[in-house]
Specification:
- The protein is an alpha/beta fold.
- The protein contains four helices and three strands.
- A three-stranded parallel sheet has the order 1-2-3, sandwiched between helices.
- α2 links the parallel β1 and β2.
- α1 runs parallel beside α2.
- It is globular, with a radius of gyration of 13 Å.
């Protein structure tokens, strides 16, 4: 099952309501409400082993080292080719299984 949400606060509520029953969270850095790194921090407080991929159009402005220290598994820069996204999803899920 896939849930598509466009507001980070709504996404956090959904994650909480479903007790973190998600295999993977993909979030954009720039989202209404709270940004993707803050959303990730809040999710990881609830479920420290949650797989998260952060997507950003800001390029090098987001420090990959800082993002990984939060617990985010991968950072992808826009634009993203579908094949790259799917390969990243496969790798992240395989690493966590």
């Amino acid at each position: 099952q896939v849930k598509r949400l466009t507001d980070s606060r709504e996404a956090l509520r959904e994650f909480t309501n479903l007790n973190g029953e998600f295999d993977l969270v993909i979030t954009d850095y720039t989202m209404p409400g709270i940004d993707g790194t803050e959303l990730s921090k809040k999710i990881l407080e609830k479920k420290p082993d949650q797989c998260i991929i952060l997507i950003s159009g800001l390029g090098d402005l987001i420090a990959a080292e800082e993002v990984r220290s939060i617990g985010i598994k991968r950072v992808l820069s826009k634009p993203i080719e579908f094949e790259v996204l799917m390969e990243t999803v496969r790798h992240v899920l395989a690493e966590n299984s």
